[in-house]
């Protein structure tokens, strides 16, 4: 729910001074009690405020947490994506390991010669390949990567909530952010990366920019 300026002012007053009566809020805003009544009714019905008879209005922090969660859910992947680290699918496992250290990432995306998404290579894929294999320079990543059609992707215009659900349901750490080139043939251009860290960072940034950091009591 989008609050009006006056409703926001009321919330601020109740946050600071609650529990506080309707009459006292009206005095602080230099308005009459009757003028404020509809706003107080809305804020109480929406759950932003709680009211107790003979005590007054007090602030309900849970409603803020709900609003924060809702605003996080609506954010678009494209505004939060990180830079994707890609390797050619013909690159060696050895080069992929070097790349993962140099770029300080947990997952690489393999592309074909047209630059389209061909595979995902995670830390565990590389560890698995490294066990008992002493010729990593000769082994192409295409042999060990998770490949199409098994790659879970997120479109640039999906929401962070969509991305978070995919990460959780598929037990993976990252998703390539893609733009469809030819959906029927599953041809995608990789334009970014969403990881568990991206989503955690988005959560913190949203709370900070909206000044809504929940104070632990
Ligand atoms: P780690 O290996 O570091 O634990 P993940 O949990 O992300 O990283 O990877 C586990 C497995 O899932 C690996 O085999 C990897 O190739 C695969 N995987 C990772 N991301 C995706 C994805 N977006 N789509 C499909 N498979 C993936």
UniProtKB/TrEMBL annotation:
It holds the Pfam family CBS. Transmembrane segments: none annotated. Keywords: CBS domain. InterPro entries: CBS_dom, CBS_dom_sf, Diverse_CBS-Domain, HTH_11, UCP026546_HTH-CBS, WH-like_DNA-bd_sf, WH_DNA-bd_sf. The keyword Chloroplast does not apply. Residues 80-138, 145-209 form the CBS domain. The keyword Acyltransferase does not apply. It comes from the Bacteria. CDD domains: CBS_pair_CcpN. This is CBS domain-containing protein. It comes from Mesobacillus persicus.
């Amino acid at each position: 729910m989008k609050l009006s300026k006056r409703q926001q002012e009321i919330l601020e007053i109740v946050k600071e001074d609650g529990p506080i009566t309707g009459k006292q809020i009206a005095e602080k805003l230099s308005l009459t009690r009757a003028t404020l009544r509809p706003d107080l009714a809305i804020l109480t019905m929406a759950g932003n405020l709680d009211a107790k008879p003979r005590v007054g209005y007090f602030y309900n922090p849970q409603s803020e947490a709900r609003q924060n969660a809702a605003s996080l859910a609506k954010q678009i992947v494209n505004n939060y994506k990180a830079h994707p680290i890609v390797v050619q699918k013909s690159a060696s496992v050895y080069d992929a390991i070097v790349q993962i250290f140099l770029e300080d990432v947990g997952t690489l995306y393999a592309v074909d010669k047209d630059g389209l998404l061909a595979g995902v290579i995670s830390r565990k894929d590389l560890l698995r390949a490294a066990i008992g294999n002493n010729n990593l320079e000769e082994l192409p990543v295409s042999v060990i990567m998770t490949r199409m059609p098994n790659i879970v992707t997120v479109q640039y215009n999906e929401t962070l909530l969509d991305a978070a659900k995919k990460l959780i349901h598929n037990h993976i750490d990252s998703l390539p952010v893609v733009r469809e080139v030819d959906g029927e043939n599953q041809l995608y251009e990789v334009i970014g990366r969403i990881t568990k860290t991206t989503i955690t960072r988005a959560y913190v940034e949203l709370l900070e920019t909206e000044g809504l950091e929940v104070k632990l009591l």
